[in-house]
Amino acid sequence: MNFCSHCAGRVSLRIPPGDRLPRFVCEACGTVHYENPRIVAGCIPEWEGRVLLCRRAIEPRRGLWTLPAGFMEKGESADEAAARETFEEAQARVEVLGLYTLYNLPHISQVYLMYRARLLDGVFAAGEETLEADLFDESMVPWDDIAFPTVRETLMHFFADRRRGRFDVRTGTIGPAPWQRPPAP
Amino acid sequence: MNFCSHCAGRVSLRIPPGDRLPRFVCEACGTVHYENPRIVAGCIPEWEGRVLLCRRAIEPRRGLWTLPAGFMEKGESADEAAARETFEEAQARVEVLGLYTLYNLPHISQVYLMYRARLLDGVFAAGEETLEADLFDESMVPWDDIAFPTVRETLMHFFADRRRGRFDVRTGTIGPAPWQRPPAP
Ligand SMILES: [Zn+2]
Ligand SMILES: [Zn+2]
After folding, report:
1. Does domain B38-174 have CATH number 3.90.1150.10?
2. Which ligand is nearest to the CA of A32?
3. What residue stretches are annotated with the Nudix hydrolase domain (chains A, B) (predicted)?
């Protein structure tokens, strides 16, 4: 951030009076520009016992498999965001059944909210950011080609909890993946 | 938003190619400025069966009672944010026990994440944004002077679930409070 989005004045990074953290503060009009973590909302969409996964057509992690998920928008709820992303990425209409996992990713200031869901009619197709979408039995999940640790964790818990017959909400904090860590010095 | 925070160019509100929603796009450098919902994280801090509430020293809802909560910062997890806000607003150190409620407030683009917690040592005091802090038995909660619907809902569920002896995560979407709605035409 270089300039104030309100008045185009220069901003500088400093701790405003009464605050604890450095913020971008406008030197002209005094506006404090806060930055906040972002929510990624997605689904574990089920159809006849199988789970719908998408192969990513975009970076990061192009070519790898993920659950449909994306940034929550202003004016919607997290479950609406999860259903919207499922339609955008996998062209699938779902009923959202309930919150299932909350993962913090503090190194990239994201919070993942993943919801259990069921396809309404079994229809799906690759959306614009997806190379292909497909339904997987637990035994067919491409575990070595899952795009993100949050998705791997969510899927592993999901199948275990489904066998157990009970889905409690699971939460956790996940650090950088190997491909996100800086190389050793 | 009037100007680009990157180059100080004028921004205009339009739908970028491949997008679905209007965004602030810089007419000079093309940067798309996304806006996202914000997370409010807080605690239901318990000590010897009583719950710690704070009377707000700031607007909105100055003078009314709330659970300690505030905006999550970049680089922290939601449970860390909940504990930090509890210390800032009520000078109380807590152990966070688990996620308890998730409430969507789409009309103001916020997601509330409230955690069960217990005071480590029973010590508390009013923080800078708090007029007074106090511990309340269920029968003493000032129900008519609770600041926010999210806090009221969280507290009502909390006491019911505590009697029941089981705390499942509760989620929901809450619309504008009466004092947030525009006056009837
Ligand atoms: Zn300014
Ligand atoms: Zn620009």
Report:
1. no
2. 1
3. 36-182
